[in-house]
Amino acid sequence: MSSVKELFDLSGQVAVVTGGATGIGLQMAKGLAEAGANIVICSRRFDVCEQAIAEIEKIGVQGLAVACDVTKAEQVESLKDAVLKKFGRVDILVNNAGRAWVAPPEDTPLERWQQVFDLNITAPFLCAQAFGREFIKQKRGKIVNIASIAGLVGRNPAAYNSIAYGSSKGALVNFTRDLAVKWAQHNIQVNCICPGFFVTPINEKMYVKNKENVDREIPLKRTGGPDDLKGIAVLLSSGASNFMTGAIIPVDGGAVAW
Predict the structure, then answer these.
(1) What is the DSSP secondary structure assignment for residue 103, as one 8-state letter?
(2) Phi, psi of 194, deg, nearest 5
(3) Is 160 a catalytic residue?
(4) Has residue 19 got a pLDDT over 90?
């Protein structure tokens, strides 16, 4: 029997966080590092990844920055190879990289719809496939998909108007459930976090312009803060969640509760 501290301890494990250089991805990467995990951050901008890893290594763990377009299968394979070369193992995959295109459905260009789907659902599939092959070999692994409450319910367009984002995140929610069932036989846990509104460098200008409408949708009357995803990310990456798979967990200030 393990203690609670032992269940949540990630010391020596290796976590890959896609899109982890900024915003909620960086928040979760720091949380995993604070629990003891060595961290790999990837995005298309290597310089931003390097800056994030420099911050994370101050926590006392090892880090690796990798430039990677996770919508490209060959680059995802190269990412996996870099992780194994550096650490010799991989334990956790956080599929966080994502994007949106804000426009009414009738005005959403097909090109933008496809770009959103490429990053929000095709990329998690490619990453899960590449790292999942390693998890199958070692008969263990944790996959944490980052969807959104927009993938659970229709959203008030006055607060957030992105049909491509909500649709792709809904696909990621059910991808989580189905992959969890498929890979349970390999002792791989696949779970999903559905954040509500967190202010990030990407959406800050939009939030400032639309603060009243956004806040009205949240019972706790605030957006997500700098620590609000750390705990759930550690839970779903650690031994504390060994009997959880296929779970879809909103972290949203109560937004989908009413």
Answers:
(1) B
(2) -115, 90
(3) no
(4) yes
Supply the pLDDT for residue 201: 81
Q: Is residue 220 classed as helix, strand or coil in its secondary structure? A: coil
Rounded to 10 degrees, what is the CA torsion of 79, 84, 89, 94? -10
The helix-helix angle for 163-183 and 123-138 (nearest 10°) equals: 20
Pick the catalytic residue: 113, 165, 175, 198? 165
Q: Which structural domains are found in the chain, ordered by start? A: 4-248 (3.40.50.720)
pLDDT interval class at 150 (50, 70, 90): very high
- Residue with the two structure tokens 């809904």: 170
Please give the order of strands across the beta sheet that includes 92-95.
Answer: 63-67, 38-43, 14-18, 92-95, 141-146, 188-195, 248-251
Q: Whole-angstrom Cα distance, residue 229 to residue 25?
A: 9
The residue to which tokens 């509760």 are assigned: 257
Q: Percentage of the chain surpassing pLDDT 90?
A: 92
Q: How far is CA 64 from CA 15, 22, 27, 120, 229, in A?
A: 10, 15, 16, 23, 22
Give the global pTM: 0.96
All residues at 6 or more sequence positions from 228 whose CB lies less than 8 Å from its CB, including other chains = 27, 198, 251
